[in-house]
Amino acid sequence: MNTLIAPVMALTAWSLVIWLWMYVQRLPAMSRAGIKPQDAAFPGGLDGLPPIARQAADNYNHLMEQPTIFYAAALAIQVAGHGDPLAVRLAWAFVGLRVLHSLIQVSVNIVLLRFTAFAAATLVLAWMVVRELAVLFG
Q1: CATH number at residue 75
Q2: How many CA atoms lie within 13 A of 125 on its CB side?
C-alpha cells in the first residue's frame, strides 16, 4: 500500500473502535452509578464514573485532537503527489504510536508511558509536516 489513504483510514477505524469501547464501558457504569443520560448534558457530569469507564472517553477525545492535524497533513501530502515510501512509513508510524497511546490509556493508564507514546507520535507528525514544507517551499 503505497498511499497515505490507508493509514488515514486505519486511524479513522481505530477511532471508531475506541468510540465503541467507550460506550461498552460507559453505559453499564452509568447504569450501576444511577446516572441518567441527561446528567451528561454539561462537562463534568460523568466525572463520578470509575476510571475504567472514563479512560476510553478521554482517549476518544484525544483521538479527535492531534490526529486531525495528521489527517490534514497526510491528505495534503497525498493530494500534492508527494506520498513517497518514507511519507507512508511515517504515517504508519504515527498510526501505530497513536494506537499504542490508546492501548496504554484504556488499560494501565500510566501517564509517563502514555506521554512517551504521545511525544513520539508528535515527533513523527512534525517530521511529516516539516518534510512536506521543505518540498513545497524548498
Answers
A1: 1.20.120.550
A2: 22
> Tens of pLDDT along 116-134?
999 999 999 999 999 999 9
Range of the domain at 71: 5-137
Quick one: average pLDDT of 72-88? 97
How many residues would you count in the chain?
Answer: 138
Tell me the chain's radius of gyration from C-alpha atoms: 17
Write out pLDDT tens, residues 19-59: 999 999 999 999 999 999 998 899 889 998 999 999 999 99
Q: How many domains does the chain have?
A: 1
The helix/strand/coil state of 28 is helix
Cell of residue 94, nine digits = 504515527
Note whether 88 and 5 are within 8 A (CB).
no
Q: What's the gap between Cα 113 and its chain centre?
A: 15
Provide the grid cell at 121.
Answer: 507520535
